[in-house]
Amino acid sequence: MNNSLNGKIALVTGGTKGIGKAIADKLSNAGATVIITARTKPEESLNGQYFIGADLSKAESAKTISKQILEKYGKLDIIVNNAGANLTPGGGYSSLTDQDWDNELQLNLMSAVRINKALLPLMIEKKTGVIINISMNPAIQPIWEMTMAYSAAKAALNAYSKALASELGSKGIRVNTVSPGLVKTPQMHQAMENMSRSLNITVEEATQSVINKLGGVPLGRPAEPEEIGDLVRFLVSNEASYITGAIYQIDGGSMAVV
Q1: CA distances for 207 relative to 17, 119, 174, 189, angstroms
Q2: What Pfam family does this protein match (any one) (predicted)?
Q3: What is the CATH number of domain 9-250?
């Protein structure tokens, strides 16, 4: 699929590390001009990608990003709403404050809602575009010890994505959701450390506990971020032109339901 995205302008939020970086690099390698956002600019090379500093948990960030994209490029073909994180402490309902719930909703749901609202007019005007919202398997398989509020926010993102796909299909815009399971990222390691502290167990025990709650991973390993990037690259390409409103689980077979 080299050069399959030539001439396309793509935005990847949270695109400087982990899954977001892998997605941004895959889109760049396929020929797209890629814009990435994060709170801070990384020290390493951006591989020719244009960086916009933004905290997407803040409402004003979407307007800042939209303004810069419009001024610099005048169009946008692809949005990948990857920014998100499990920010809250483990321990279940009693450990979560109203602020914890709000933090999860702002970053994991409202960031995508605001970005899409700000940038969709550029796509609607040209009657073409693709949106990928990055969810996670905890949206449909929550782990109460560590993902209660995060799972609720991602479940809301799934519902929003399906509704948006139904609304925008007649306007030539496709919307799909990619839902990874365990992925080897700094965020995953941090989540395991948080869980280990809250339950007073080792990081290794916390990781194994999560794997056990998932019923195991049939492929026997977490995903590499690049494997998520490969799926996103396909879904934003013309090869996926009849796919919209779908949720793609990419979890090594860990979701043991139909």
Answers
A1: 21, 38, 35, 9
A2: adh_short_C2
A3: 3.40.50.720
Pairing type for strands 173-180 and 33-38 reads unpaired
27: Cβ–Cβ under 8 A, 6 or more apart, which residues? 5, 8, 10, 12, 34, 78, 80, 229, 232, 233, 236
76's tokens: 């946008």
Catalytic, 73? Answer no
Of the spans 26-35, 91-100, 208-217, which averages the highest pLDDT? Answer: 26-35
Q: Which one from 150, 160, 242, 248 is the annotated catalytic residue?
A: 150
Domain ranges across the chain: 9-250
Pick from 28-37, 211-220, 240-249: least confident: 211-220
> pTM for this one?
0.91
Per-residue DSSP letter, 86? -
Tokens of 214: 């998932």
